[in-house]
Design brief:
single chain; alpha/beta; 9 helices
Length: 358
């Protein structure tokens, strides 16, 4: 008896689509059946690298193909919901690139449809499958950093400039997903300000801040207008501090054995003698982490979930949580940076573990 396989179609062959196609095709448990793109010539050129793959410019062909049981959607964000809805109606498992949809209402509809039909729904928050991100999550869960005081991230580059979404919706989903994953929570409120420079009213620079439970603060700078490509997150805890730098050639994780404590809980007066912070300077550790390819890990995880009936790490609820934060930050961005509460209950949940090399 032959091994059961995922019979896959990919919709969208733009910037990210070819990378997903390559990784899914390389998984021996996948049969790549179809590639769909409105530019059929492009789809045909990409499909020529693979065997026995049908191409089409009509997304309807994917919905009606009985040989396809799972679909990857990597189209412009504003098309995600309608395509995903039709795929679920057709009984297809779904992998949707981030962000999941453009509103929380759309996300909830897709979650309910997938649940009702017993289908898998996974969102492409690829950094959750990065072994360095998982390493920091493990250190936080083991209380090696102590109580988290604050987190700040920077995700900037010179381009690429997008027209379908702003820099917040393009870049921030990565970091919001990481913040939520590390803290096991969604924020209570968001603030955001930005700049519309290249293509108003689209913001190409955004500064955002988020209030998490337990008085944890997080901030984020995203931009298409910076001279250098930077991907960095700093976590400050009461025991240790961590820098995750995805561009660092030495190692993505730097752990600083540094803390600042106050020697007394008495009220602080305005004299130096009355209060002196205790600064502890310790070692810098750069752990050896077997990085692999996060996108490969993510694709293999989706296949695992379909074939073995597992819950995805970045499931529909995970995608919904990120979109809720984006919606609140967008409201703030459009209203002079006003603090905006994040609708719905704040989620504190156990996120399923996944091996970095799965």
């Amino acid at each position: 008896m032959s091994e059961k396989k995922v019979k896959l179609a990919v919709i969208g062959t733009g910037y990210w689509g070819p990378n997903l196609i390559r990784n899914f095709y390389d998984d021996g448990r996948v049969e790549l059946k179809m590639i769909c793109d409105i530019d059929k010539a492009r789809a045909t050129t990409i499909a020529a690298k693979y065997r026995n793959v049908v191409t089409t410019a009509q997304v309807q062909d994917v919905y009606t193909n009985p040989e396809v049981d799972s679909v990857v959607i990597c189209t412009p964000t504003d098309t995600h919901f309608e395509i995903a809805k039709r795929c679920l109606e057709s009984g297809k498992n779904l992998f949707i690139e981030k962000p999941m949809a453009t509103t929380t209402a759309e996300c909830r509809t897709l979650i309910e449809m997938a649940r009702a039909k017993g289908l898998k729904l996974m969102v492409g928050h690829v950094f959750l499958y990065n072994p360095a991100v998982q390493y920091v999550k493990d250190r936080i869960d083991r209380d090696e950093l102590g109580n988290i005081i604050y987190i700040y991230g920077k995700r900037v580059n010179l381009g690429p400039i997008r027209k379908d979404v702003n820099a917040l919706w393009d870049l921030a989903p990565h970091d919001i997903a990481i913040f939520n994953y590390w803290l096991g929570a969604t924020p209570l409120a968001a603030n955001a300000t930005g700049i519309q420079n290249i293509n108003p009213p689209i913001h190409d620079v955004v500064f955002a801040s988020f209030k998490y439970p337990n008085n944890v603060m997080a901030s984020l700078h995203v931009s298409w207008l910076d001279p250098r490509k930077e991907r960095q997150i700093v976590v400050v805890g009461t025991k240790r501090m961590v820098v995750f730098d995805d561009m660092d050639p030495v190692g993505p994780i730097h752990i600083y054995d540094k803390t600042v404590t106050r020697p007394t809980q008495k009220p602080i007066t305005d004299t130096i003698q009355a209060f002196k912070a205790v600064i502890q300077e310790g070692d810098l550790v750069i752990p050896k982490i077997n990085m692999g390819e996060p996108l490969k890990n993510e694709c293999r995880h989706f296949v695992d979930c379909v074939l073995e009936n597992r819950q995805p790490l970045s499931d529909g609820e995970n995608g919904l949580e990120v979109v809720r934060v984006l919606e609140a930050a967008t409201h703030s961005l459009n209203h002079a940076g006003i603090e905006t509460k994040i609708g719905g209950p704040v989620t504190l949940r156990q996120i399923p573990r996944v091996s970095a090399t799965a």
